[in-house]
Amino acid sequence: MPFSSSTSQFRKEVDEALHAFVGRQAPGLLAIGEDLRPMITALTALLSGGKRLRPAFCYWGWRAAGGEDVPEIATAAASLELLQASALVHDDVMDASDTRRGQPSVHRRFEALHAEHAWRGDAATFGEGAAILLGDLLLAWSGEMFETSGLPEDRRARGRRVYDLMRTEVMCGQYLDMLESTRAGGTVESALRVVDFKSAKYTIERPLHLGAALAGGSDELTASLTGYGRPLGMAFQLRDDVLGVFGDPSETGKPAGDDLREGKRTVLIALTLERATPEQASTVDRLLGDPDLSELGVTDLREIIAETGGLAACETMIDRFATEARTALAAAPVTGEAREALTDLATAATARTF
Amino acid sequence: MPFSSSTSQFRKEVDEALHAFVGRQAPGLLAIGEDLRPMITALTALLSGGKRLRPAFCYWGWRAAGGEDVPEIATAAASLELLQASALVHDDVMDASDTRRGQPSVHRRFEALHAEHAWRGDAATFGEGAAILLGDLLLAWSGEMFETSGLPEDRRARGRRVYDLMRTEVMCGQYLDMLESTRAGGTVESALRVVDFKSAKYTIERPLHLGAALAGGSDELTASLTGYGRPLGMAFQLRDDVLGVFGDPSETGKPAGDDLREGKRTVLIALTLERATPEQASTVDRLLGDPDLSELGVTDLREIIAETGGLAACETMIDRFATEARTALAAAPVTGEAREALTDLATAATARTF
Prior knowledge:
The structure is a homodimer of 354-residue chains.
Chain A: H1 5-32, H2 37-48, H3 53-64, H4 71-95, E1 99-100, E2 103-104, H5 106-116, H6 123-147, H7 153-182, H8 188-215, H9 219-246, H10 249-252, H11 258-261, H12 267-275, H13 278-287, H14 295-307, H15 310-331, H16 336-350
Antiparallel strand pairs in A: 1-2
Helix pairs in contact in A: 1-2, 1-4, 3-4, 3-8, 3-16, 4-6, 5-6, 7-8, 8-9, 8-12, 9-15, 12-15, 13-14, 15-16
């Protein structure tokens, strides 16, 4: 792990804050009905995984702006994990994904619960409905956790503006992402625009801004954090796209080739199509998005992505974005400690495996 | 319309507050991408309908607690319409409903958009994905609209606790509702429990509490509002269940018999099954929840619900709850103006048509 000890310590605090929050909510749910226990089980399992990247960036945005290492910031930052969990649950419904973080996705869990009890009606429909509701609950709770973090209102008021913007951006970015995969003729440029809103801002830039806003950081600092966070966020998503095609399922928590079966029109795919022969392009068009794509089909697509030079172009782009981020960080008006942590996070966010 | 002029005036203010909020958000969405315009169109169409019951109860909870008639309360109360719109959009996905408020449901709108452009992939899947995201956006915006209402933080802090509770209750209540329809052996008692959380608290009791909390109302007032709001909420939902089976589609905005096709295990159905002969019960079990149920099947079910006395028992229950609400209101420590408005709202919420 490339994390410094202060970052591992923070991760533990995030886990504890999440555990405490869910622990406070659970009795209320069970008072409504014992039947809600599977909801608690499902969300607890989901929250046990994850890299806690967004809380880490939020925390270092806070520290970079001179915020003290107090427990309240861990709670406010940890609320981003509930937002992310909500997005994952709904994403998995939309993509009909079977697994998440190496476990069954939430809708599949509830589908199995339905089947196990031989309940009336369609098990898959029940599973999707339960997952939509659990995602809604997690989204509502993310706001609740932020507001009850214990940070004073003047700080929360500044942070809330960033939080609001981030939520709108990620939801709109996800819609654009869906649109990108349904329309023919996507370009590298249009794929990069999706990455910006769906992922770069949401995962790195806005969490940094949130932390800085909570601490009362200057406009100059905010601009510096953008200079570092935005290219790093781009690199992070491009790395994720590469891992989605070439990654080890035991590392990614997703079956090999799932991104290809879902037909995701990533920057990696756009770079490939830009370089493909007509024959290669038509193979990509035929295989990409086929939900029943075989192992052989996955191998064919991987070969085309590598042979066209699409993969190499994507790696070059990742390096360029990562270098841009590091250069901006070197010039940023932050403490030595924050600079070190943000350097570590940059490595973690773009590593070939994690 | 049974509304007093001050209530119609308030409705206008709610409409204006919603219009202003969406108007402030739209440029941000279009800056992310022109492709987001259909999202704005869909949510504007959805928000143009609705009875504005929840904002009205919130407003009269505020007034009952001595709150002044200021624009900020209209904005805070109107945010409940965004929460409700979110719930409706997600509900329609879960129930695969074609229409809402007399218009195509959001997922059907986006399905049509996909089909119209002959985009790649499955149009229905695209429609559902877009609706899940739009529901998420509306949920996030409900919190944002509340927090940016202009009410001072000490008031919002009190209201936030009610808001948080209400969101958790309604999402859990909807899960219990789904569970009720999938499990055999539901009783009148278990159906009433679902109504309590999914509908009675959410539609009436909590909005009243929210308004009262924002105004700094006493515990005594909060208890009085429960005495009025909870039975009225039960009556409201039972009326909605009756209208869902026997209502005029031009009034309900939903095709006749849709609740029967969805297989909703309402209190009305539970009361019917309690009174049914084995033969009638088996017909109900066979027809209820059949998505392709014919007009003739709808008529058969209606006849059984009427003939068993299920309908009459439900009407009796509605009357009993409504009377309980009125009795509590008569004894509540509220001004004459609030009492009059809450009397009107009780009539509106339980009227045979609206």
